Amino acid sequence: MADRGDVIELVEAHVGAFNAGEVGRVLAGLATDVVWQTGSDEFVGLDDVERLLRGAAGLFPALEIKRVLVDGQRAAVEMIERYLHEGQAREVAIAVFFSFEGGLISRVKVFREGSADP
Prior knowledge:
Layout lengths: L3 H16 L3 H6 L1 E9 L2 E4 L1 H11 L5 E10 L2 E12 L2 E14 L2 E9 L6
């Protein structure tokens, strides 16, 4: 079982890879059968998540961690997401809930301020 510091390090590594646009590194931190939910959309497995991440690349998203709360193998993370949408810079507050198994992210649930959809 990872301790609180390990879980925070895993979250920070995930966000760092995401912000760097390193999809391969993001995927390396995910369990093979990961479940990733955002809004009403659900992506299951590495192939689905890879398509999601590569599809979002044109938005140039960047995450800023504000707070991390850890409970065993789970983390609730408050973040600011910055991205481009139709040429306009956007910034929204998001909450992301992570579950971990064996040092890998097994579940991700993303909520955006005002809406779970972009």
